[in-house]
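Team,

Forwarding the record for the chain on the shared tracking sheet. I've put the sequence and predicted structure together so nobody has to dig through attachments.
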Amino acid sequence: MTVSKNLDIKTDLLLNDEVINQYMDLITQRSPETVYTFNTFFYSALSNKGYEHVCRWTKKVDIFSKEKIFIPVHLEEENHWCLVYIDFLKKTIKYYDSLGGRNFSCLKQILRYLMLEHVNKKHVDFRPGGWCLVNDRDCPKQLNIWDCGVFVCMYAEYLSRNKPLNFSQKDMGRFRKQIYREIKQKKLFKECE
């Protein structure tokens, strides 16, 4: 993928789906054996059209062989980005919202997706016992109305590296520049700057 010529992450207030998808792709490319990221259209397709509409999206990947899955979630009514993080090792599905929102229906829908996907691809029931659905209330919060996409990218970046989410609103300008440079170079930096 290439950075759109008319895209300037440094000055655009809202990160759009194109930027978020490119950044999520870089996270997957860095650790393809353990990490998988869905694109920004996955959750809306799943929630609006059902499992049958998205069941072929993973025909070339076994998501159950991964340790971590990231799903950007766009809340259309609020024009707001959030992140779902599936941790197969800890059996958790977490929802990260930089405005502090909770979304149990989203978490339940992702768990149902895993159950249907497991039966479809593995031909064995997925046992949801022991899985925790968590709205993460302690994640870094935004103090404006336009940085949600940057927060989503950084949640995924830090979690993919097993780093604590120890950033804040004051880091967003620097992170926007980092995202721009990393997409342009088609490679993530070794450490979050």
